[in-house]
Each structure stands twice: as C-alpha cells, then as structure tokens.
# Entry
Amino acid sequence: MISARPEPSPEREPLRVVPHAGSGSRHGRRLGRGGQLGRGRRAGRETAVMREVRSMREARSRREAGRTRRRRTLRIVSAGLPVALVALIFAVTAGMMLGRWRFAVIDSGSMRPVLDPGDVAVMLAEPIADLRVGQIIAFHPPGQPITVAHRVVSIRRTAAGVAIRTKGDANNAIDSWHATLTGPTVFHEALRVAKLGYLVVFAEQRWVRFAVLLATVMSAVAMLLGSIWRGEARRPSLVSRHLR
# Structure
C-alpha cells in the first residue's frame, strides 16, 4: 500500500504592509500636528497656571508689605504719641515753674466778647518796660487776693513802680482801683483757649506740678528701659538665624 506523503508547503513570508505614499505621509503629518497641538495646549494651560500662581504670590507679597507698613506706622505712632504728650506736659509745667507763662481762668463776663466765662487766657511774661496801653494783663488788684485779667487804659511810670488803670471790655466804667506794678515782668494775654475751664487751676497746684514732673521722668525711664529690653530680646534670634 502506497502512502502518499504530503508535499512540504513552501515557507510563507511574513506579510508586510507597505503604506501608500500619499495616505501614509498625510497620516503621519496628521499625527504630528495633533501631538504638537496637544503639547501646545498643555504648555498654554501650564503657562496660564504659572501666571495665576505668580499673580497670587505677588498679591500676597503686596498684602504682606502693606500689613508690615501699617504695623510699623502703628508702632511709630503708638510710641510717638506718649512721648509727645509727655514732652508737652513737661514743657508746660517747666514754663510755669520758671515763670515764662501762666494761665488765667476767666470766671466772669467782664471781658466779653474777647474772653468768655470758662475760657483760659494764656499769659506770657514780658518786661514791664514793654507794657503798652491796650494790652490785656493779669494782675492782683490792690487789697484783693484774686487775679484779674483786664485791659490797660492808662500807664504812669513813677519811682514806686508802674501805675496803671484798667477796664473790662464789657464794663461801662474804668475799674475803681489804681494798681501799681512793681515786679520786673508783667503777664499779658497772648492766646485764648475756649472752654478749657478750671482744669488749669487744678494743674497749677504745686503738688500737681511735682506729680506731673515725676510721672514724666518715670515714663521716660520706662520707655528707655523698654527699648533696651526689646533690643536684648531680638539679639539671640539674630544670632541663631546667622548660625543656620
């Protein structure tokens, strides 16, 4: 019995797909353009995000700088106001103690409308030789313990001193007394502070002046020590930051 052997089949070569020149190149170009467009969109989105982040950082930096400036201004103002107040109180008290100026509280209406009741007349010292008719001066009438602020209407210089006649602007007649000024200086009205009143009378007492002077010195010492302590407290942090 004859058996038939199958003939060996020829080896099949792997199929190769040869793309068409026109379609393949267009497809490749299409893929290239899509990739470029995708990368461009991603780059655009990343650039927009970066711009937004940068703008947020800049806005935050501006806010921080503004807060820093406000805090610095507040510190300067909070430190300067007490110093200015203490300096003003010290200057006023020192001037009163040295006889440079004084304050006259107006408790009557005899000098209306220039000085009303409740006003405070700031009196500056000047040599008695410079006294002129028409000035408002503060003086003690003869035999009276009160201080009067009236306008000078006549001046007569004598060996005993300077004799003056005065009158209130709201009065119809000249004052009845003949006052004689004997000191080297006289206090004349230079400024009116409306409605300050009797607070000045309280401040003119001797113990009040001493208390104000003591408080001024203690405040100055406290501010000096506070600045020294703040500088010592900041010094270790600066050293540690330098070591890091």
